[in-house]
Amino acid sequence: MTDRSVHVTVRPGSGIVARTGPGLMVVLDGGDEGVRTQLLDNFDAACSGSDAPGRTMARSLVGLLSQSDPDAIPPFGACAPSERGWAVILHQGVALHVFEGDRTTVVSGFDASTWVDRIIDDGFDRLTLLPDGEQPSEVDTRFRFQGGVIPGGGATILPATGMAEGSPAPAAPAHPAAAPQPAAPPQPAAPPQPAAPPQPAQPAAHAGYPPQGTPPAGQPPQPTPQHASPGVYQPGQNPPEAYPPQQPGQYPAQPPAQYAPQPAQPQPAQPQPHAPQQPAHQTPPQPQPQPQPAPPPQPVADGPDAGPLPTRPPPGGAGPA
Fold this sequence. Notes:
The chain is an alpha+beta fold. Helices cover 11% and strands 23% of the residues. The N and C termini lie far apart (187 Å).
């Protein structure tokens, strides 16, 4: 029988629970700490590497018991499969509960003055190691002790075949499943909101042109002309004349003068300012040369005594020498 052939559960407590291979050991409080450590070491060495270490385990533990002071040995119990059933060693305050069908057998370590050495036949439903005088409780098969050394106050062995066929060991009641909550009633769908009316399209402005009615850049906006309604009195005007009394059924041939269309008044032309003309550049007149006065005539001599006429020196030159 291998360690996978059994299912081990641990009961809480202040003692020690050890499992090596298919073997199981429970050591309670008491005795000498050194002896307790030797018990655990001998058990681990005997059950390692074997599928039926029952007889080897029993001889190793009995040899330690025979060499130790009985008062230094703590209460313990150990069991492991062998060639013919399960070998069991009990000392002092540990008991073994054997469940087989409707029958339960209890073997206590107090049944002998030294220790108890037994062989339990196969075919049991479960084996439980507990402190002497305590009763087994329900086994919760959801938890498994695979191996090692852990704190505990007891342990139970369940054959895997018995669990597959339906072990009589009562399992701890599972928590009842929570009752399904009733589904919330569907919420009424919100009525659809009316769509917003479409906005009228704005005429797109042509690129480079201002919108209609916008004054040109640099000019103030022009006031809107107010037209007086016919027949309505305006301040600064004479009140309109009433229609002359008419006979019933008659209408005036022509409306009064104030209701007749007025001819358009010509607007006086605004004089445009002219820039003064620059006088043309004139060359000042050059002075003309004054004419030289003619020389006075010379008197002519008559007669033989008359000598030669004097010559007039040329203008601007000297006379004869």
